[in-house]
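Obj.: predict assembly geometry.
Materials: sequence records (below).
Method: joint structure prediction, all chains together.
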Amino acid sequence: MDVPYQGWSVAADNAKQDLRKVKGADSYVVKVDQAVKKRFKNGLVLLDVKKKDLPAAITQLQDKGYNSFIVEPFVAHAGGTERYLSLSHGRDGHTLALSSTGGVDIEDNSGSIETFAIDAETDWKKLAEKAALGVEQLQALVETFKRNHFVFLEINPYVVDGDAVNLLDCAVEVDDAASYFVSDWTESDIRAPKRSSKEELAIQALDANSPASFMLEIINPDGAVFLLLSGGGASVVIADEVYNQGFGEHLANYGEYSGNPNTHETYLYTSEVLNLLVKSKAPKKVAFIGGAVANFTDIANTFAGVVAAIEERAEELAKQEVKFFVRRGGPRQEIGLAKIRQALIKHNLLGDVYDPSTTLTDALGTALKGLEA
Amino acid sequence: MKLADIRKMDAQIVCLGSHPGIIQSMLDYDFLIKKQQPSIKVIVASGRKQERYFWGETEIIIPVVGDLEKLPAHLKNSCNMVLNVQSARRVLSSSRRALEELPNLKILTIFAEQTPEAHALELHQFAAKKDALVIGPSSVGMVVPGHFKLGAIGGTQHQQLSNAGIFDEGENAVVSTSGGIVNELIHTVTGAGLGVSFAMALGGDRFPQTTPAQAMLLAEADKNTKRIVFFGELGGTDEYEIAELLRTKKLTKQVIAYVAGTVAELFDAPPQFGHAKAMAQTHDESASAKKAALREAGATVCEKFADIITVLEKCEKAPGKRTASTIATRQKSLMISHISGDKNQEVQLLGRDLLQTVESQSMASLVASMLLGEQVNSPKLVNFVDYVMKLLVDHGPYVSGAVNTIVSARAGKDLVSSLAAGLLTIGPRFGGAINAAGEGWIMGVEKGMTAKEFVEFYTRDRGVISGIGHKKYRIDLPDPRVEALTKFAGNANGDRYLKFARGVETVTTTKKGNLILNVDGAIAAIMLDILESELGYDQDKLKELAEIEFFNALFVLSRSVGFTAHYLDQRRHDEGLLRLSPNEIRYLGG
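Observations (raw structure tokens):
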């Protein structure tokens, strides 16, 4: 875009080193760089920080639970000059949104945002004028968006002083499915919104290295209901049912595996969930293993991994009186379900095991009833 | 696209990429609903020429081609459905190619997860110009009961398919953004004693090619469909389009809807669930807002998943119409053969009874047929094979293969060992030239090279041109055998291979008088002309023959007679071990 930019990435665990590189301005802005929205309003942006106060500023933000920051030169500007710009894509092509009253209150001023379709008929001159940018600058911005597989880009605010354009804050959302097709960013440039636990990180690594997909998110570390689910749709339905049946506050995690993972992968996945389960301080705990009727995920193979992980921790689990409930269907379900039932009986962990003739709702209902008693 | 038209279509499917589990399940579906023929015609994948699958309990072969462009014209025209199971990286290019290459393509399902959004959007724009239903990405496909199953939908084991109850045409459309749930809902519908009119998984991406609203309109226009069971999720605003269709009465059939993701309310920051689109950034995108909009517009919105069953159980039951086949145990064979085998306890050759063949066919006709792997009826080809077999039978005891047979025979070895010693000599410098010459002529003609370019190509990269050159005969002293062979010229293809070979000879003989077209080169060229003219073989098929050494086979067979004769001859003489004298070998050491 030909707009000069200066900024330094600072990681919490390497702050001292990273801050050494910061120089050249009278004072600085320190921001949390972790894909958090409304940073300013949430006190995650510190303005006009002198160089000597930078370490303290980083510590202050770190204490709020963040670990990735950006330091930029502080640019003072007159009030009321902040502009807003965003770009997005959809079935009708690209859309540019502009407002001349940008800044942290943009959501209150949403009426001021005008949107424009970017297509063959776009009057670039008029549009650039509206954005207070040069035609080439604006076109370069759209090109950058396309070339880098951005999904959303927001510059809010930016200020224009004569020919000088100053981007005060900018966020982009990239399409991580496109990392193979881009050269300007890699997976390592993507910032997670919050600090991940050891177990979540392990699952992210598992996901990154497998053609199957894995996901794990902790909701309540001391929850009583632990889910080990398969299928992007069914997993949400089951988590919903926990919530709808009034057990939301007891829900410990959300997660799913899908795309026919192999036995070793489901073993690793299960081990991480069981880690969380054993750690939870809830007095009574249940695990629900389940999913819909799979189309192509092999139940015997995937459950073999689940069973192996359970057997490894069986003693601990039995001591905590955890009960396992299972409901699943799909290729080779008879073998998979029989194996897991056998293992759960052997280790005194059996809640119950259901095939698809029992609905997801009913199977889960029985599992949750155990918590009430 | 209308479902009525889809039902009228005879499904002819191309698989882009190979996914054996899914392909087998589609074939099983065809078999179980008693189709006469498998609907899968070809697989586009690299590495093999064919894949084996089961049709019921017996094995069948599905051809594999390396590139969609290589599909024969009749298949390009007849194929109307594509199953795309290629990786996400290739979704855009391969789907686009399919839409371009197959003029009658009506349904395309895309299986891969993690397709870049920009690619999905580009494909959407491209597909909009075509009258085709594109489903996915991240879709397990579509099933129209009683007609076809395109994708993993319904399961990948034949027992699963039988349990799912998707053989009979019913009245309930199942539309879901999730693949696992589409299957769950199929079971829910059939478990309630109802049938499915069609089921499709739209995929959990942010920009599905077929949107939920489009799927609703498909169901609305379908006379067989009475009501729609719909599964949606938080994220995106597609459900508002359905609400709008209901409000404006463009959608009048009952919609039984479940929108997943109310659990998101538990999270501080908007969570990303399993599917790419399953993340609500704004209130509009939340499950509860979408449910409220659908309910207000008149949809039957279920709060609990099990409520879907309650609603369906109140519906009037529609009995099934079809009894399906069953599949018993299967056994994969170790090998397959086109050439011969037992049928009704009798030996068959190429589909004909052995005795019948013996009584009605000449040896040359049998050799031609067996080597080509099909019964050939061209007298010209048979005569040519007969002539060539005779011509190659023996060229004297001087050649290296014959010498080795003779040396072995005199060493007291048995027939088979001595014959093998001779045969093992056949290779690039002895006897292997016919095949190499054939390869050359095919390449030259296919690439449209001039004789001069061809000669330059060979002399630069390889040095020798197979089929050219003779020790004794020269341009002014022509090889009489080559002259004799040319009586088989005059083929319907204008003798293009022989003409090309003669053209090459014109160039090479200006360099050296003995660089003439030799017997090997002439046999290869004339054989190519005859196969093309008499049997209609195309270049791919001719290339395959060269690849599998068909042309060498003629030499091996014929010369085996010569070697055997030399063996027997030597045994009759019984002269004892052959040993070279020291003056025949010059020792360079010491």
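Conclusions so far: The first strand of chain B starts at residue 13 and ends at 16.
To do: check interface contacts against the pulldown list.
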